[in-house]
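Ops channel
N.P.: pipeline sanity check, posting one input/output pair.
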């Protein structure tokens, strides 16, 4: 299965790389780039166009072969498959040192069974993005521009067009300063990239309290025993209005095992707060715990809101709360199984209206997060509505 998917993906690019061999006779010796370079130097020819073309084709072929043979064990970092091919480096006199165009896709087919007589299916685009990032000449600063091309009816084209537009610098040791249009750090899964989610959909607290973009500045610190994300933002979401109010987001994680170099696993215990004003005041508190050891992972996140300014695009005055707990295990380097319990109370002043989701999932990493297959089953138990069952088949590719 792996070879089939990767072969289809690479077929177009390989066609150009092999074109040079189509014109070689069976008995002809095809010189490698280094050999050609030596022979040309003997004849007093340097930087011949033909030599450059051959070398470029050989280089492209080698890079595509590297992608085909790529084995990715790190699933916690987005690996774009065409990074080596698409990245462009500039001359020393340019302000920008490099630029890397990229694209990402994550979508799924949803089968929803509400009861014995009700069934529907639809295709969801979790994330369809294209953009570019790169580094500045100073070697410590970078930039990113990410466009969202997912079809959404809730926001117009301008509000949906940009996902990330920011610059950042790592000049201060153990710190990163990031300024621009970005995801605030209010909650762990809320700020996680769509391409790094364990399940096809975010948790209920992330879907309601966060997963938005706002304009602001933040400081991200990372030491052996502690990490933090502190920032100030406009309370506007998705460019709906100009600075309707201010927002503060702060999150701190303690890493008790940080000095052990992963020998006993990675343990994080954290908490944070979001405070802001838009149409009215809002406050969201949260807590988090996670543990990773070899093939095993577990995490827990809780959040409580006295009003919130989330993905719906307006401030809700509801007092709401929720939490989720996730377990995961890598059966093989490519196959991960997951289980999750997720509960949400959308209004604590109303009784018997909780929503619970019981999820089981399988992720198959053909090339890490760069090429991934997703299968989820979700049982939705609702106190004030009919229960439902969902089967989700998803795919993800990062180019």
């Amino acid at each position: 299965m792996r070879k089939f998917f990767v072969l289809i993906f690479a077929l177009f690019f390989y066609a150009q790389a092999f074109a040079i061999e189509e014109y070689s006779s069976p008995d002809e010796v095809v010189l490698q780039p280094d050999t050609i370079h030596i022979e040309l130097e003997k004849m007093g020819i340097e930087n011949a166009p033909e030599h450059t073309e051959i070398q470029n084709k050989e280089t492209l072929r080698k890079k595509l072969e590297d992608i085909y043979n790529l084995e990715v064990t790190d699933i916690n970092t987005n690996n774009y498959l065409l990074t080596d091919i698409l990245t462009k480096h500039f001359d020393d006199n340019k302000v920008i040192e490099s630029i890397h165009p990229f694209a990402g896709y994550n979508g799924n087919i949803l089968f929803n069974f509400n009861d014995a007589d009700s069934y529907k299916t639809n295709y969801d685009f979790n994330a369809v993005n294209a953009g570019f990032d790169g580094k500045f000449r100073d070697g410590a600063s970078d930039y990113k521009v990410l466009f969202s091309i997912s079809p959404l009816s809730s926001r117009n084209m301008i509000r949906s067009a940009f996902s990330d537009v920011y610059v950042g610098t790592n000049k201060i040791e153990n710190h990163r300063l990031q300024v621009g249009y970005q995801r605030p750090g209010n909650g762990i899964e809320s700020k996680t990239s769509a391409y790094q989610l364990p399940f096809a959909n975010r948790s209920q607290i992330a879907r309601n309290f966060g997963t938005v973009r706002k304009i602001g500045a933040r400081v991200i610190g990372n030491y052996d025993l502690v990490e933090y994300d502190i920032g100030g933002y406009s309370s506007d979401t998705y460019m709906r209005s100009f600075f309707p109010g201010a927002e503060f987001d702060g999150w701190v994680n303690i890493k008790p095992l940080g000095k052990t170099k992963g020998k006993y696993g990675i343990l994080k215990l954290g908490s944070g707060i979001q405070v802001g004003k838009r149409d009215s005041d809002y406050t969201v508190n949260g807590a988090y715990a996670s543990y990773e050891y070899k093939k095993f992972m577990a995490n827990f996140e809780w959040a409580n809101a006295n009003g919130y300014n989330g993905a719906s695009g307006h401030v809700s005055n509801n007092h709401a709360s929720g939490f989720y707990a996730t377990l995961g295990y890598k059966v093989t380097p490519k196959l991960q199984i997951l289980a999750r319990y997720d509960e949400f109370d959308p209004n604590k002043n109303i009784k018997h209206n909780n929503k619970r989701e019981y999820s089981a999932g399988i992720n198959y990493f053909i090339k890490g997060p760069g090429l991934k297959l997703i299968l989820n089953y979700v049982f939705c138990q609702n106190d004030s509505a009919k229960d439902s069952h969902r089967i989700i088949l998803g795919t993800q590719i990062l180019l």
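N.P.: looks fine end to end. Residues 1-37 have pLDDT under 50 and may be disordered.
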